[in-house]
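Input record, target 12 of the design panel.
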């Protein structure tokens, strides 16, 4: 009757040296009479998670966590996002993680799937592996690019002389856009004076004018850009009233 002999050893060069030494002690006769099985013992080892630099909004993303070494008996795989555990309860009842699902393939592979990704899915995802001997983890940073679009489109505005006015211009994207206001040159101005040049009058989404004067009338341009795309809108500001 043939018997099975299970030999447990550690992964790596030291484990192979010990294995060779053990087989030398067993001898050819012993090995020939038994089914020899080899298994590694030790803490789990996880392969790095492969990701792209960024993903477009609406994409389906698969993060694959693979255990490549260590003892499989008693192995558990878990996911976190930004330090918060993603378990069955949080995925089922939290609207924050509505696009995330987790699928396990065998004992040593776990796939985290994000469907119809949005900016809220950006973050740091960590896979943790733990067995009775130890644990290991690996992380991946996800960036979801969101198309540049208007949140608040400015419109032509009329105000009275010496009045205060605030005009809002806002856009959103990922990465975050830079917004600024510029006063455009007057079509009636001549020569190289200030009125014939574009002047940046505000950094940010608000154009604020205090105690408006007739010289503040004119065309103002709001621009939003994020390095990959840009938006622009020109409005007319009119100051009415007698001095």
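The sequence produced for target 12 reads:
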């Amino acid at each position: 009757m043939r018997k099975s002999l299970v030999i447990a050893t550690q992964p790596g060069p030291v484990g192979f040296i010990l294995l060779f030494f053990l087989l030398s002690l067993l001898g050819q006769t012993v090995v020939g009479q038994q089914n020899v099985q080899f298994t590694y013992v030790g803490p789990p080892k996880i392969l790095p998670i492969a990701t792209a630099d960024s993903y477009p909004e609406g994409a389906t993303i698969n993060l694959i966590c693979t255990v490549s070494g260590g003892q499989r008996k008693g192995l558990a795989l878990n996911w976190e996002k930004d330090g918060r555990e993603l378990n069955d309860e949080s995925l089922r009842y939290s609207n924050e993680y509505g696009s995330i699902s987790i699928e396990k393939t065998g004992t040593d592979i776990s796939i985290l799937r994000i469907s119809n990704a949005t900016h809220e899915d950006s973050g740091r995802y960590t896979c943790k592996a733990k067995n009775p001997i130890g644990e290991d983890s690996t992380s991946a940073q996800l960036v979801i690019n969101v198309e540049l679009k208007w949140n608040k489109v400015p419109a032509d505005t009329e105000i009275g002389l010496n009045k205060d006015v605030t005009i809002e211009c806002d856009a959103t994207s990922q990465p975050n856009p830079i917004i600024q206001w510029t006063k455009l040159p007057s079509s009636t101005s001549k020569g190289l004076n200030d009125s014939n040049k574009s002047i940046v009058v505000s950094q940010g989404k608000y154009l604020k004018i205090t105690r408006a004067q007739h010289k503040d009338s004119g065309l103002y341009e709001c621009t939003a850009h994020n390095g990959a795309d840009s938006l622009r809108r020109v409005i007319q500001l009119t100051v009415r009233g007698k001095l």
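The longest strand covers residues 230-240.
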